[in-house]
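User: Sequence in, structure out. Go.
Assistant: Echoing your sequence, followed by the structure tokens.
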Amino acid sequence: MDSSASSNAAASAPAVGPVGLADVLGWSSSVLGAPMLLAPRRFLRAIGVKDDGKALAWTLGVGVREHVATLNIVANRQRRIGMWSRVAGDTMDLALLVQAHRHKRRNAGRLYGAMAFVGGIMTLDAYTAIALSRADRVHVRDGAGSTGVGVEHDTGGGPTRVRTAITVYRTEDEVRRAFRAFDWRGFDAATLEGSGEVRFVPAPGNRGIEIHLDHEPAATGGTAAAVLAKAAGKSPDQEIDDDLRRFKSRVETGVLAQSETSPEGPSARRQIWHKRQPAQPVGGGD
């Protein structure tokens, strides 16, 4: 797949959402929480609230929550969960400030400023949480009326037959162009399209395009050789499965998902022969 197609696919719709912004907001929680724990009375006076015992207790509690929010966002693979919890915390903070304005007001101007600040942060947090949820395919329609279909159960064919489907979160035109440009090892894309062995259909819920593949590569050496090749992770159908996963990663994100144990991307051979251990990501995709 050429670099221009990769960059266009990556720019059209990010696959993981604003993770960097979520991390910045996560660390900012600790920055906001630090003065609440280290100098709670000074913090209360700074926002225009009387520093009595009850207000101190609430301030310390919110300070602890802010540090927990940092961990919940930065250390959580699904950052949208931490971001939504932060939105809930912002809502609570606004409610506390409203109560403080009614019963513990020391400086109305400073309190209004604190409310405006929390309101702005809540807006940014909500935007980030929604964007992350959309990237995780949370906010999608139920797919009623979609023409996307699953793969029918079929046990026919030889030992190298590939009958599978993947979903790529892109438009049909983008998927078709990328499919023709991708460097497939197991087949020729144009030949496969011409023979009808590959189909492109809308995925349920507007989740992109399903690629349905029904192809049987030529097996050299007969059934026994095909079985041995599969055991070694080198059979044609395994190469095609690996290529499909690489294709999905490349088209949806613009990069190839790699790790220490599989620097070339998904690999059936490495899964079979390499000792299982937690995979560490490498510096960048190819």
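User: And one key feature?
Assistant: The chain has two domains: 14-135, 162-273.
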